Amino acid sequence: MLWGLPGMTPAMLFPTAAAFFLVCAGVGVVVLSGPLAVGRWRAYPALAATHLLTLGWGTLVAMGALHQMFPAVLGISAKPGRGTVVHLAVTLAAAFTLPAAFLAGSPPWVAAGGVLMVASVVLLLAHLAQLVPRRRRWPPSATGVLLSVAYLFWTVVWGALMALNWNLQFWPALYTYLGVGVHAAVGLVGWFVQLVVAVSYYLLPRFTGVRHVSERRVVPVLWALNLSVASFVLAAATGQALPARVGTVVLGGAALAYAADVSRFLRGARQTVPDLTNWHWWAMVGQTALGGAAGLLWTTGLLSDGRRLAAATAILVLCGWVTLAIMGQLYKVTPFLMWYYRFARGLSAYEVPRLPAPYFPRWGVAAFALTATGSTLLWASVLAALPTLAQAAAAVFAAGCAVYAGGAVASWVVAVLLRPPRGSQTAPAPRV
Ligand code: HEM
Question: Secondary structure of the chain: what % helix, strand, coil (to 5)?
Answer without folding.
Answer: 80, 0, 20
